[in-house]
């Protein structure tokens, strides 16, 4: 499409309409709206986004000049200059971006031009232009720019539009680097700005809802390159960096292509929002993917595995990638490419601008590498051709030499240029295999090294299976990082266990990891644990195959290879057992212990589980999950000590628990007969599900109280959460009333132990956390909870009374129909019901109504939230038959729950 066809306005026609009308504002507004519609039509027609941005800038130029002519006479135009700054100054104006202008006036002329200036700016707003304006003299500009680098940066990219052109020329002269912000100081400040900006965005580009402009690898990073380039070299175009040997032609193409993609995404974002927006929110991602033509991945040949309800992620497991996921994959890979180019150029700029007078000597590390100004570089441009293994050696040298603060840009470029050398012959080379394993054995720098290897493309080249997970994001709220970033975070968490100053965070993990025979096996398990994702099968099994093959081919013993593969295949086992199953049940512990086999494997799996859970989502980890995993590990160790052939049974466990409690309270002067008399009303389930410490507290609370209903709260209970123990008469509405009361208190229920005594009294405990994941510690808050529960236990209300609050906008984006599934345990005469549903207010209370209506008794409930989805597991019995749920009741329950939850 020719430039002529891209004209958004016919100025002759506009002037004709203005001449024939008494009111100019409606005409201008109509012109702006028509231009915006035309702009979007051109976008939908596939016109290059670069042309659209420049076309809109040119349209605004014409409009401003037109309004200017109607507001300022010739004399005023010789005293005032209209200057575009910011993105408008660069000629990169998105559909709803602010139009930033500077009105530069001659000294001493403000008072006589004040009314005209105010009228001009007001008219621009009245006609529908979102103007960001400032009015300054030349002296004022120089002064504020000297004090504020943001204003100085705006001036760096300013552009003359109309008015007194001499003033614009004087502005450029008065703000040159020899007068304010010399290039060295300017670069340091802008570099620090970028660091702070990245830190504000969690120092990662891989956020669920990234900011297109401000995040690492975003448009600001490209602008940063442009600002420094223009300030130091005086160049206005990124192409000049090729002439100056800062970029190759290929890198410039990559940079321009990446910028074009981000521009297209931002343009689409403005289009669908109808306003200025830089956050790539969930509700926009799917629409943009459709708009840009990203389609759902075609069906794979391999059939998906049957749903496994003993894994942590049954609802968000293997699947073919959605169009939105393919779009976000390209988005994240684009940011990765931009981050790399940004890193290379910043390193070059450091050397050229900051260290140009550094005369320190180059120090040889070996015949292939040397250190120059604390950056590692090759000793000769053909090193990688002559010694391909050096593509791995460089990273080992970085780990071994703490004075190295980065890789020289020219060497980064050479690494990238020679990635093709990492082929099957390279991978079969014993030197390369030894180097790769040695990297994992180093006492420092592993996380940083893996990040570099991933950024430079070496990791994906050496491990082709890693390429598949690079930039891969699942469209859900649970996995907040791409799979490759999550993998590196897992290893980072493992390494953190070794750091003395962080040992207070996870004392048990720090203790265990120091006694591991071979920590590198744990790191390798972390590297491979999710590497099978996105292949249309069980990623744990697929990753285990890759891990075993890798370990054996890299000289590890069969025993070590099998351990790494086993860890990968079982990396979800411990978290799913702890969060979904009743780990107070001796049979569950015995089953888990048999699958683990020994204490060494348990230690490896425990560390992998903690590191994995903490690297999945910032909100996933809490004290309750910490306590669950510790309890599961502790009980499994006890099972090992007894011997797997001598599993503990319920009768032994009850006696052992009671003996421990009696031994504890005898020293406190309690009447043991009163204690035993109280316990006669409690069944075995109570002594199995509760720890001796919990039973001691319950017993004391019940013996000291004369009230019919006892609500006892432990702020930081044995469960790792806040435990609310309720002893009252059993009624049909007890579970409903309690869950509703806790919901009203905005507490997150993570577990419920529901036990009845012989005399039909409840021995129920609800483990809760505040919505931010903290336990409840405030005294007034604890009192509020206690009183509200007491008041609510006798309430009567219907399911219609439950608040049907609108879900958070994020949750609405991920709504999925509920699934209800059942697994019978004939031996224990109970059924496990798994409810998979979209998280929302009052969900647990609705489930409680359905269970009551179907006369079903709950023994235990574990509530797991995975982003926008919940995976609630209930151990239930038929309240009339005290047995597993019949097929007929299952269908009735499923029907009612589906209607209640998805209405």
Describe the structure.
The chain has five domains: 4-181, 2-Layer Sandwich (Beta Polymerase, domain 2); 186-301 and 309-331, Up-down Bundle (Four Helix Bundle (Hemerythrin (Met), subunit A)), CATH 1.20.120; 360-448, Hydrophobic Seed Protein (Orthogonal Bundle); 463-641, Hypothetical protein af1432, CATH 1.10.3210; 688-902, Alpha-Beta Plaits. It is globular, with a radius of gyration of 33 Å. Helices cover 54% and strands 11% of the residues. The chain has 41 helices and 16 strands. Mean pLDDT is 90; it is low at 299-319. The protein has 903 residues and is of the alpha+beta class. The longest helix is centred in the middle third of the chain and has 32 residues, at 323-354.
SSE diagram, text form:
Layout: H1 11-19, H2 24-44, H3 49-69, H4 74-77, E1 80-84, H5 86-90, E2 99-105, H6 110-126, E3 131-137, H7 138-147, H8 149-156, E4 159-163, H9 165-174, H10 183-200, H11 219-233, H12 240-243, H13 249-273, H14 282-291, H15 323-354, E5 363-364, E6 369-372, E7 375-378, H16 383-386, H17 390-400, E8 406-407, H18 409-417, H19 424-428, H20 430-441, H21 446-456, H22 458-462, H23 464-467, H24 483-496, H25 507-513, H26 519-528, H27 539-553, H28 558-569, H29 573-580, H30 586-596, H31 599-616, H32 623-642, H33 650-666, H34 672-679, H35 684-689, H36 692-704, E9 710-714, E10 722-727, H37 734-744, E11 747-753, E12 764-770, H38 779-792, H39 809-812, E13 819-825, E14 830-838, H40 843-853, E15 856-866, E16 869-878, H41 887-902
Parallel strand pairs: 2-3, 7-8
Antiparallel strand pairs: 1-2, 1-4, 5-6, 6-7, 9-10, 10-12, 11-12, 11-15, 13-14, 14-16, 15-16
Helix pairs in contact: 2-3, 7-8, 10-11, 10-15, 11-15, 13-14, 13-15, 14-15, 15-18, 17-20, 17-21, 21-24, 24-26, 24-31, 26-28, 27-28, 29-32, 30-32, 31-32, 33-36, 37-38, 37-40, 40-41
